[in-house]
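Entry:
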Amino acid sequence: MANFNLEDLFTLQKYDPDLNGFLNRKFADTKELFVEQLYKDIDDAIHNIENNKHMYQEAHWGEDELTAVLITFLKGRCYDAEHDTQHGGHVDILVKHQLGKFEWIGEAKLWNGPAYIYGGWIQLNERYGSGTIRDDHGGIILYIKIKNSATKLKDWKDHLCENVAVAECTSEDNPLRFKSITNHPATQLPYYVRHMGVSLFHHTGDSS
């Protein structure tokens, strides 16, 4: 078997997307590169959950249970990811860079209207995140079990912009994603949040 050194791995990184992702997760030297890779992996985790939405319709599949599925997926991709851990309070998702350089905090909510989601935003922005340079990225994950998930995410986007001084609010190609930049109240430094809808509506009636 051929022996590979670290230089060989970084050469192969250009040609193997799986290896590229692994190296970005473990050896990212900037938080921007780490977070960019994290969002790719979260999107894959969300896609997996959406593909199995029929399994998550019962009432006992709430915020914590769905988030546990997402975190299990991230751990399978070698992330240091925790659920309901202490970080200024009980955070839903905490992902740490393995070298201790960066942290990412996620707040997960089952859709119950924009006002309910706003409570999660307050927790993320004013309670859990420190807003320092090592902790200035976070995410809101919305589990939407009813119809028109893209409209629901737009409702949340409009509500956020009406109630918060948003420096920037950028839509993505995916209508179930957008990013916001606000000034964190603790530091007045930019705080970057990605908002992600998980479309879980599943019609269980007889179609005959």
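The chain has a mean pLDDT of 87.
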